[in-house]
Specification:
83% helix; 2 domains; 66 residues; mainly alpha
Length: 66
């Protein structure tokens, strides 16, 4: 949380996604999502993003050892 600019950008992206999905309707061909659907989406995306980052760092560490 040291980089306030990054936190602001992430918050704006999250708000933008919510706004488009909730109110985009016919323009973006979306339908509003329930709170449960948002939770599942955010949790599963977080697992993929954080997990892939951890795997990448582990691979880099293993390559350094050789």
């Amino acid at each position: 949380w040291r980089d306030r600019g990054l936190v602001l950008v992430l918050a704006l992206i999250l708000f933008g996604q919510w706004f488009i999905v909730t109110f985009g309707g016919r323009m973006f061909r979306t339908q509003p999502m329930s709170l449960t659907e948002w939770g599942i989406t955010i949790a599963s995306t977080g697992v993929v993003v954080l997990g892939s980052g951890e795997i990448w760092r582990a691979v880099k560490r293993l390559r350094k050892r050789k």
